[in-house]
Amino acid sequence: MHASFPVDVDLALVGGGGAASLVLAALDRHDVTGLRVAVVDPVHKRGQDRTWAFWGLPGDDLDPMLSASWSQVDVVTPAVRRVLSLDPLRYAMLRSAPVYDRAAEAERRLDAVRISVPAGELHDDGERVTVRDPDGRDLVRAGWVLDSRPRRPKRPGRTSWLQHFRGWWLAADRPTFDPERAVLMDFRTPQPARGVSFGYVLPVDDRFALVEYTEFGPALLDDAGYDAALRGYADLLGLDLTALRVREVEDGVIPMTDGPFESRPSPRVVRLGTAGGATRPSTGFTFSAMLRQADQVAGALAAGRPPVPASAYPGRHLWMDAVALRALDRGHVGGVEFFERLFDRNPPERVLRFLDGVTSPAEDLAVMRSSPLLPMTGAVLGDAAGRLRARLRR
């Protein structure tokens, strides 16, 4: 708690999780000075509470913080195992502890004020933003607020799924995993009636790896369901769980929806992370877009510009995601078939860059041509009709 409220700052970060931590680290990287900063969150994030996996070019600022990275990954279906070379990209794993530590260093350098109180309403008068606690007391007055608290979409989506998962960090006493390759997607898992499931393996070394089960779909499992799915996937991998130790368990639920997120709810409030549209609707992937947002915010502040990042994904990608979600949800195309064709008919680099939202229109057309034509055409027409109905209702 701060001794005297409200605190007057240039920038307030509301929410202190991954998105805010990446912003603090980016401010440090851009050598931003003279900025009065406050972080408003009742929890000071520390330790290993999550794992991010992403792809990108090696040699960036994250390299010293990575737990592992791979230049090859496997994509497995019941019919075939594809070994994909990602050159010039790499697939990387980043655990949360070094990110939180880096953010804490940046806080100290910036002499940021840490306010360990939940944030409530934000009042933006166009010149300053007042951050209030849930009881309506003023905590902070800021020139700009970056708000990364979870939010629902501005309007419900026509399709709303979830990426939900459970992972076990497994430790072995003898060499068990292949540290040279990660398993990106393994679709040999039993497929749900509505949705798609897969497993993956991220090895840190030959004796320690994250083994995870993931579903894309409209409904969650219970604890017993996730554990049963993980045991089943371990069997598929040929792992003897009686000879392994579960060091940690990770769970998560991420929205996959074509409902629009409001990234700029008022003139001086900017939303980041999932609340700011950083989650890719068709996959639930978030980290790369969060990283871009953080870098753009810090770069703008270093140059004396408003800290407003670009849209996380091009509009055409959001439309393509809406169509893909509709096709999967309505059963026009099977999830395994959809992803199998995506990786089979495109270079790996194009697929990964497309999922990150950085492909060109010509590359997007190539990706579209790789999907099943007739089912996707039906989804396009259904999406157009849904948009028209929504407009008429509004």
Describe this structure in words.
This protein has 394 residues and is α/β, with parallel strands linked by helices. It has nine helices and 17 strands. The strands form three sheets. Strands 1, 2, 8, 9, 10, 11 and 17 form a seven-stranded mixed β-sheet that branches. A seven-stranded mixed β-sheet has the order 6-5-13-14-15-12-16, with helices on both faces. A three-stranded antiparallel β-sheet has the order 3-7-4. α1 crosses α2, α1 crosses α4 and α5 (315-329) crosses α9 (373-393). The longest helix is centred in the C-terminal third of the chain and has 21 residues, at 373-393. The protein is globular, with a radius of gyration of 22 Å. The N and C termini lie far apart (44 Å). The model has no long low-confidence stretch (mean pLDDT 93).
Shape: globular
Number of strands: 17
- The chain-level mean pLDDT equals 93
End-to-end Cα distance: 44 Å
- Uncertain residue segments: none
Biggest β-sheet strands, sense, barrel:
7 strands, mixed
> SSE order in H/E notation?
EHEEEEEEHEEEEEEEEHEEHHHHHH
Number of helices: 9
Radius of gyration, in Å, reads: 22 Å
At a glance:
With 394 residues, the protein is an alpha/beta fold. It is built from 9 helices and 17 strands. α1 (18-29) packs across α4.
What is this structure's SSE topology?
Layout: E1 7-14, H1 18-29, E2 37-40, E3 51-56, E4 68-70, E5 72-76, E6 81-85, E7 90-95, H2 96-110, E8 113-115, E9 122-124, E10 129-132, E11 138-147, E12 160-172, E13 181-186, E14 196-205, E15 208-217, H3 223-237, E16 244-257, E17 269-271, H4 287-302, H5 315-329, H6 335-344, H7 348-356, H8 361-369, H9 373-393
Helix pairs in contact: 1-2, 1-4, 5-9
